[in-house]
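2024-03-11 09:14:02 DEBUG pipeline.ingest accepted 1 chain
2024-03-11 09:14:02 DEBUG pipeline.ingest length=169
2024-03-11 09:14:03 DEBUG pipeline.predict start
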Amino acid sequence: MNRRQFTQTALYTTLSPLLIAAAAPKPLVGMVLKAMRNEFFQQMADGAREHQRQHHEYELLLVGVQEETDVKGQEAIIQQLMAKQVAALIVVPADSIDLLPILIRAAESGMLVINMDNKLDDRSLAAAQLNIPFVGPSNFNDAKSVGAYVVQGLPAGSNIGLIEGRWKP
């Protein structure tokens, strides 16, 4: 399954209940991406647009920021989508912690919030007592696979280091 198919499947799976419940006007779905110059996110956007063309049950408002780390830009976009009273918000967060306050406000306003691709921080979600569904890969499993592969190539007793945390320029 390629990225476009993944995005289409994720959209269909997560939005089906909302679409079935919507009888009158088509619900407006906002999708907020990051790094729109990046081919990965361009393909994700193409997949979302294609899904909307094939399924006319909703209107798609797809927007994004140009830089991978533009949290302020995503916050402004989400505020605009809240003002438009979108029924659902699908977000690929620029930061898994810093975007939480605006996402909490969106969820509290009654908006269905769906986290895609870059998983929001579990501890922060738990502290906020908020459950935002996640659609995307398991970075934990991927990291575990990479670690197992690297260990195979190291001599016994090798020293290794793990760098963790958020980098801020």
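2024-03-11 09:14:41 DEBUG pipeline.report The first helix runs from residue 3 to 21.
2024-03-11 09:14:41 DEBUG pipeline.predict end
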